[in-house]
Structures are given as structure tokens and as C-alpha cells.
Amino acid sequence: MTAAAESPVLDAAGAPAVPTAPTVAQVVLEQLKREGVRHVFGIPGGPVTPIFDALDREPGLTLIAPRHEAGAAFMAAGYARAGGRLGACLLTTGPGATNALTAVAAAKADGLPVLVVTAQVSTTVFGKGSLQDSTESGADTVALFRPVTKMSALLASPANAPDLLRRALRVAMTGRRGPVHLSIPTDLMRRPVAPDGAVFSGYRPLSRLFDREAVKECAAVLLAARRPAILAGHGVNLSGARAELRELAELLSIPTATTPKGKGAFAETHPLSLRTFGLASSPLAERYLLETGVDALFVIGSSLHENSTSGWDPRLALGRTVIQQDVDPETIGRNYSVDVALAGDAKTTLRELLFHLRRLLAVGEHPRGGDGGAALARARAAGPAVLNPDSTRSEALPMKPQRLMRELDAALPEDAMIFLDVGNNTLWATHYLTATGRNDFVHNWGDFAAMGFGVAACVGGKLAAPARPVVAIVGDGGFAMAGMEVSTAATHRIPVVWVVLNDGRLNAVHHGQTLQYDGRTIGTEFRRMDVAAIATGLGAWSRRVRRPEDVGLALRAALARRGPSVLDVAIDADEVPPILSRVRSLDKLFVGDHR
């Protein structure tokens, strides 16, 4: 060590300098960096300014300031989904916090870990009617966030900041992940924290749990089955278990479908693929899973909610052994009787299952004798894998949405990350776009279905995965709700491409009402917007696309740009999307029946 390195640090008076204790704000930001966060989403406001001031002087963290607090939380959720790590948003008190509630609820429904930090008025004015008071005497944000997070708490003292932050991040990142909320009074943000409690590591375990005995039971069932099938859900994508899923399907030659939120977990180009089952089902998946005598169904990473079961179709579990794996034990057996329950992480569970299966096969136990391959061949021969395939080749104008999906399929890069907003666009894309095994389909139409999610979350997704092409396929209704976030992307030169299906309707609801009310619709139509002009005004490159042959050209040009792009695509509004399972569910729910 050199003499210079050994010299003590001196203050202005020449005395040894006393290390400055970090503030509450600095502790929060430093821990975000330790979690791998590099971008923080938030909108400034008076009470939250001290954290923004600290953020402005914090190397390694970049602020992205959206146009609405919901956009900030949606972006943080997209960042968490694309990066497989924590997302973070900083919001002011009062309406700054309440504006984000929908987006935070969407993150909870999808198991996405987001730290939501909201400001609170000063502790000196609690209960006095201060502007935007969000304590119990006002809009109690801690209570408001409690149902839509895994944890919601108020910081009462700077001394508690490290412990409270540790607890929040442990809750967010373990088990089934999800958002957490901390409310920090503005007068505490600049208060010092004891240095010995400010920096910490090893505060949470890695969630790699599995049940070995249940895995053995699962292996025995799969080896004994003559016609097994797999239904893979959102949990496969969240746990990064795609490779293990493919190994399992190939090892035992098991036909595999995915739920709508699980789309992408298994390549739809694979010979064993049944495509998607549930909302916007593939006819092939329905024929195989519901009609061909499957005797063992292995559900991986799905809670079997309405959209993943075609409205809780009883045939999905009828007359067969059901195996269900999920990271959350409370969801197993919630909607269908389960014979084998596998609680734990999908990736770890599948690795253990593969190990056990190979060991059994190597010693000659349970020789395979199933007829799944012949049954799959018969299901393929019985009809196409998608509805109305002729429409994908239609030259009609306005463009058929089926044809639009075909053109997008041909032009999208194989490793694209595709964000879908809630609506007609989700149905068309889920049914007709092809999962390559390398692309991702990210949407919120599962447990919650928040419009605006896909419009804004893609910005966070691109920042978390900058090397991947990011394309958002959204409807004009969702774009109207959150499209101002194109301005956010333009401000920060974030190269996201929005493909807007322009039909002048809330068309998923419109067609649902048409089918339910003998052609009547209620509140679903609006004047078609000039989406391209709006996008140009927000600072994005835009193109109006009206003909099928122009789709690929426009998309490739947009992907080549260094900033955001918006494609305004006029589609035939009268084409009915694959929505019948949702309509059947609503018909039952209207009369109080869920079966």
C-alpha cells in the first residue's frame, strides 16, 4: 500500500474527517443498485423531491420520468418482467400514489417484483389537513396499497429504514414475487441512517424450492400414462424454465399447450406443440386436451384461472390424473381437483423431475408404451390449428386483423419481445402469432387485465433488455388511455415500436356485447383517431399502414430507427376475434354460475 493511500482523509480544518452517514433516500437508492436496478421510473412532486435530489446525484441510476404515474408503475413492471429482476418507481403523495394503483395491481396479478416508494407529508403535520395528506386522516395510501401489494408500510423512523427496506425487498423477491409499497414522510428522507445498518446483503433467500416426494409421484404418473399432455403457464416464463419444459416434452414425447399468458414458453414450431389453450384457444389444443382421451394432464406454472381453462371447462380435468405445479401452494387445487401437487419453483422442480425420470428410464423401469403421438397426428389431421386460416391471406381492405398478424409474424425478429395491451389485439396476437421459443409475449390479460399495460410496460421492457427488439401491439382504445408515454420514449430516445390496431372501437367488448345482446352495443364506439399524427406530435416517427404488403416494410423501417416509432394500422372493425370462451364465461357469471 502506498503512503498516499494510508493518509487519512482530512476536513477543511485539517482534522480527520468523520464519515457522513447516508440519508434514508440514499439508503433506498443504494440498495436498488445492489438489486441490479439501473433505471428508476417516477414523476417529481413537492414531498418526494428529496429522493429525486438524491437520485440526481446517484451514479449508476437513471431517472425515466413518464407522463402519468400509472405509466411509471407499468414501466417498472415491464422492467421487472423483461429483466427478471426488481423494478422500481418513485411517486409523490396523494394523487401521485393513487394514480399508480391500477398498474401496481397489474404487477401483483402477474407476479412482478416492483418496489413502489411514495412520499408522505411531513410527520409534523400528520392529521392537520396538509395538502395531499395521505395518512389515515386523508387518502390513506398505506391502506389503499395493501390489497394490491404483498406488503404496504409507512416508515416511522430513520433508524428503521434499513430493516423495513430489507423486509420489503425480501417479500417482493421471494416465493411468488410481487410489488411492495413503502410510504416515506418527506421530513425523514434526508435524515441520516446509522452507517452500520445502511449497507446490507444476504437479507433474502433464493426461492428454489421443490417437493422431492411429489416429484417422484409425478414421474410415476407420467411414465405410466398412455396419453399425457402438458399445459404450461406464466410461471414457466417467470422462472426461466423453457429449456427444462422442452426437455421434458421431448424426453417423454408429450404434446404441449400453453396458456395465453404462458405463450412463448414452448415453441409453436415444435412438432409436439398444441399452440395456445384457453382465451383465444387454438382448435388443435382444444381437440387434443378436451376430446382425445388424455389420461394425465401436467399443469406447470398456472393457477388454472378463467382465461387459462376456457372458462373453467370441466372437460380439462375430467377422467384423468391431474398434476399441478405452482410456486404458490394456495393456488394448487383451487379450481380443479388435483391428484399430485408440486409446490415450488418451476425451473427447479422440472430439473429434479428430469433427473428422476432419466434415472428410472436408464434402469429400464416403466417402459414407454403410450399412443400420444398417434393421437396428436389425428388431432392435427382433423382440422387447422387456427380459426379461419383463409383470412390470413385475405387481400381485402380495410385489412383483416388475421392478415395483419400473418404479416407481423413474417417481419418480427425471432427474438422479439412482444408486449400486448388488453383488448382485441391480445386475442388476435395470442391466436395467430407464432411463439418461436426465443420470443416473449408479455400481457396482463390473465387475472387482472389492465388496459394501458402493454402501451407503457414496453418502455421499461426495452430498458431492461436493450439488445432485444421490443414491439407493442395495442388497440386504439388502450393507446388513448396510455399513449402519451410515447412522449416519454421520445424524450429518452428509447427505441420501442408501437403497432396500433385502429378500428374506432373498444372492439373486444363491442363484439362480446354483439354476441350477448342480439347485435346491440353500449358505449364501445368512438371517432377513429389519427394515431400517426398524434405520434408525430409526441416526437415519434410514424407511418400510416393501410395495405398488407406495407406492414413488413414499415415494421422493419421502425425497428431500424434509434428512437420510438408508431405504426397506425387501419383494420376491419367487423371481424370477430376468438373471444367465445370469454363470452361463455360472462353468460354463466351473469346468472351466478361458474361451471
Give an account of the 3D structure.
This protein is of the alpha/beta class. The chain has three domains: 21-198, Rossmann fold (3-Layer(aba) Sandwich), CATH 3.40.50; 212-381, Rossmann fold (3-Layer(aba) Sandwich); 389-577, Thiamin diphosphate (ThDP)-binding fold, Pyr/PP domains (Rossmann fold). It is 38% helix and 14% strand. The protein has 24 helices and 18 strands. The strands form three sheets. It has a six-stranded parallel sheet, with helices on both faces. Strands 9-8-7-10-11-12 form a six-stranded parallel sheet, sandwiched between helices. The protein has a six-stranded parallel sheet with strand order 14-13-15-16-18-17, sandwiched between helices. The longest helix has 17 residues, at 346-362. It starts with a helix and ends in a 5-residue tail after the last helix.
Radius of gyration: 26 Å
CATH superfamily of the largest domain, called what? Answer: Thiamin diphosphate (ThDP)-binding fold, Pyr/PP domains
- Which stretches of 5+ consecutive residues score pLDDT under 50? 1-10
Residue share in helices? 25-40%
CATH fold description of the largest domain: Rossmann fold
Shape: globular
CATH class of the largest domain reads Alpha Beta
By helix and strand content, what is the structural category? alpha/beta
The CATH architecture name of the largest domain reads 3-Layer(aba) Sandwich
Q: How many individual β-strands?
A: 18
Binned strand content: 5-15%
Distance between the termini: 75 Å
Enumerate the strands of the largest sheet in spatial order, edge to edge or round the barrel: 2-1-3-4-6-5
Mean pLDDT: 92
Count of individual helical segments: 24
User: For the report, how would you describe the main beta sheet?
Assistant: 6 strands, parallel
Number of domains: 3
